[in-house]
Structures are given as C-alpha cells and as structure tokens.
C-alpha cells in the first residue's frame, strides 16, 4: 500500500484528502486508536477521511466514478496491463479535455476549470512532517482496562502498568516530545506511569514499520 501510494503521489501529486472505508489497513475496525496509515497520510499533509461504519453510501461518488471509468475504458476487454493503462489514460483525457458537460454549457471541464491542469502540490519527500501525525495522536485519551497481570495493550504491544491497577481503566495520552504514553488513573488525574514507545519514531512512521 505504501509503495502504491507513493507512486500515485509522484505521478498525480498530493491530494488534499483520501476517502476510504474502515477496513484495514486504512481503518481500524475497533476504532479505538488512530490508524497508522492515517498518521502516515497526515504527515504528508493528506487528510484521511474514513466512511462511517456500515454506511457505504458515504463513498457513493467514488464508486460511481470507478464504474464510469471502467465502462469508458472497457477494462474487461483489455488483454494486458499495458493496454489497460493506455485506455484509462485515454478515458481521463476525454473526461477532462473533450467531453461536453451539459451543466457547464456543453464545455469541457478543463475549459471551465483550468486549475485542473495546475500542479498545486507536487511530490517532495522533504515534505514529510511527523509532527502533523503526532498532533493527531496527542488529541485523544485512549482508555485501556488493566489486565490481571497488570498490563495494557496499545497498538498491538503489551506494556506493564502495575498489579495494583489491575481491573481498573487507565487513560493513555501520547507525548510527542518523548515518544511516550502518559498513563493517568482518570481523565485530568494524576500521572501514574510514563511508557516510552520508540515505535513512533520518525523513521518507523515514514517507512510504515510502526507496528512491525
């Protein structure tokens, strides 16, 4: 997924947002953490937009667009990937530069919206800013119930909080400065533990190896 998205950014520049469903790897079905891929997109300055659970209609425009592109390019008649790419390129050229749109006075889209030809956000590897991802992580408190052995789990990794907190709910807040989770006994309460988590280093986030 990372390789394909980077290829897309290089070819088509950075989009303002990417809409997906809640399935992995874009979403987290439990919805109890910010998806790692969402953090990665935020670091590039791309807003991740997740559909509401069990609301496929949220993606209606994307689904219709894919269906239209498929029919225009006659994808099922393409004998190989090279032919498919060529027909898709021709369909995109037709849709933007030649196809008359009734609600635009039978003009082509590019004639009415010349900004479609502008490269507003070209790909630049130096634009990756992990602080944008950290800012999102720091916004929320993450409640976790302490297991009988005094542990909690966050992003698939088990950490020790202490046996005296077993059965209780603790609240984790990410601290970007030290790449650590601050554990509180209650929202706004006293700090009970600081848990370093170097998984969220810039390199791990950039390479999408946070949870590997």
Write up this protein:
A hairpin with a 6-residue loop joins strand 7 and strand 8. The chain has helices at 2-12, 36-43, 60-73, 81-98, 109-112, 130-137, 202-207; strands at residues 17-20, 47-50, 142-145, 151-154, 157-160, 169-175, 180-184, 191-196. 12% of the residues are buried. The mean pLDDT is 91. Helix content is 33%, strand content 18%. By secondary structure, it is of the alpha+beta class. The strands form three sheets. A four-stranded antiparallel beta sheet has the order 3-6-7-8, with no helix packed on it. It contains seven helices and eight strands.
Described by the principal axes of the CA atoms, the overall outline is elongated
Strand order of the largest sheet: 3-6-7-8
Main sheet record: 4 strands, antiparallel
According to DSSP, the number of beta strands is: 8
Task: Give the helix level as a range of percent.
Answer: 25-40%
Residue runs with pLDDT of under 50 for 5 or more positions: none
End-to-end separation in angstroms reads 15 Å
